[in-house]
Amino acid sequence: MTVGVGGKTPEQALVGLSNMVAGMGPIGLDEYQVRIAKAQDLMRDQGIAAIYLNAGSNLRYFTGVKWSPSERMVGAVLPANGPLAYIAPAFEEGTIRDFREVDGVIHTWHEHESPYRLLLDMLTSMGIAADARIGLCPSMAFFMYDGIRRLGSAFDFVDAACIINPCRFRKSATELALMQRAKDMTLEVHKAAASILREGISTTEVAEFIQQAHRKVGAPGSTFCIVLFGEASAFPHGVKHAQVLKDGDMVLIDTGCQLHGYQSDITRSYVFGVPNERQRALWNLEKAAQQAAFEAARPGEPCGSVDAAARRCLEAGGLGPDYQLPGLPHRTGHGIGMDIHEGPYLVRGDETPLAEGMCFSNEPMICVLGEFGIRLEDHFYMTATGPRWFTQPSHSIDDPFGLEA
After folding, report:
1. CA-CA 20 to 30 A from 279: which of 36, 66, 249, 304?
2. Coiled-coil annotation: which residues (predicted)?
3. Closest to 283 measured CA to CA, from 303, 302, 268
4. Rounded distance between C-alpha atoms, residue 178 and residue 403, angstroms
5. CA 16, CA 339: separation in Å to the nearest integer?
6. Could you read off the pLDDT of 331-363 as tens digits, one per residue?
């Protein structure tokens, strides 16, 4: 198959897409309560009296409050025993009340007041001992921690990741279903994007189409979009200038969307026109490395072992070694869920045991500077017996979407 030849106009491609979000609702109160109960069990086991959840995905995970972090403190305090409570600027109280899925008293501060003092007062009002261990959100900005520290509290502040990560790493059936649908949506967008390619089209035009296509399948739009042609495809996250497509160019498109807070992230690489022998050989090696990583993902094995398997495959094919180019310059994969990149990671040194419910990207990219790059990225989740693909890997360089299979 010659990708793009005899293809569609953007308008024709959009007509072929339809809304795919039917039947997919957001996380419900019951699941938030299960998450809170698990976190509180972990806190009691580890002797942590309370954790502070800052605005962002950690706050949303436990409370449903969708709030971007900023210089103003917005969050929640979850004690090891008892109900959680919110902290927010006074002028945002009504909005927090509207966003939250989990009830809790909202403690407010005015612009001239210290939210850090209010946080400490909240802990005391919850009956927490002055020298207790308190977990602080790992995504909290340093200036917030420093503001708390300067108040001279006797609390023993620790990283709350020891509570948050065991909850978020392993996804529930509901989370997996949301991620599956989001990834299905993005894969259809990829197919549509391939159908509009023509000589002379720009990366900017393709990215704009992908944004529209994600909306057509029911997403708010693309969470992100990387479109690269030719030599630029050797730079994992792109270059500053747009490119224009030529016959024989490698095409790399990496994009994703969000469904009720859960992310997709899929990359496809193929040649516009007829692949040459070098493109074909390295594309096949990339596919083999992706499969080697998948097969190495066994329950109980460390996350780093998956990265090692991909590198062994690439090195056997004459690339690398290690991070050297031509070869794989970055980790093999990342965790995914409410954040596009979240722990644990498929990288050397991550000793986290692979466990049921964990979700990962699998993308051992090959970069050949001055020529092209190839990234095949699909995601898998761990079951009790091994990994399972969310989306089936690219079929072949000639038929990347398996349309002729």
Report:
1. 304
2. none
3. 268
4. 25
5. 29
6. 999 999 999 999 999 999 999 999 999 999 999
Token digits of residue 275: 């692949």
Between vectors from CA 328 to CA 322 and to CA 330, what angle results, nearest 5°?
90
Instruction: Give the span between the Cα atoms of 250 and 11, in whole angstroms.
Output: 24
Residues 6+ positions from 250 with CB-CB distance below 8 Å: 229, 230, 233, 269, 270, 271, 279, 372, 373, 374
Orientation angle between helical segments 173-195 and 203-216, nearest 10 degrees: 130
Q: Residues 6 or more apart from 38 whose CB is under 8 A from it?
A: 166, 167
Quickly list DSSP for 298-337. -TTSBTHHHHHHHHHHHHHTT--STTPSSB--S-SEEE-S
Q: Which residue has the tokens 């997996």?
A: 176
Record the pTM.
0.96
Question: Rg (Cα) of the chain, in Å, rounded?
Answer: 23
Q: Are 16 and 209 in contact (CB under 8 A)?
A: no
Q: 32 is written with which tokens?
A: 């938030």
DSSP code for 233: G
Give pairs for 391-398: CB < 8 Å, separation 24+: 391/183, 391/184, 391/187, 391/266, 393/287, 393/290, 393/291, 394/268, 394/269, 394/270, 394/287, 397/270, 397/271, 397/275, 397/279, 397/280, 397/283, 397/284, 398/1, 398/275
DSSP label at residue 14: H
Residues 171, 358: Cα–Cα separation, whole Å: 6
Q: Cβ neighbours of residue 145 under 8 Å, at least 6 residues apart?
A: 136, 157
Tokens of 165: 């990560």
Burial of 9 (C-beta count, 10 Å sphere; 0-12/13-18/19+): exposed
β partners of residue 135: 51, 158
Q: Which of 277, 300, 323 is nearest to 382 (CA)?
A: 300
Q: CA-CA distance, 9 to 16, in Å (whole number)?
A: 11
* 163 closest CA partner among 53, 55, 82, 34: 53
Does 275 sit behind a cis peptide bond, omega within 30 degrees of 0 on the bond before it? no
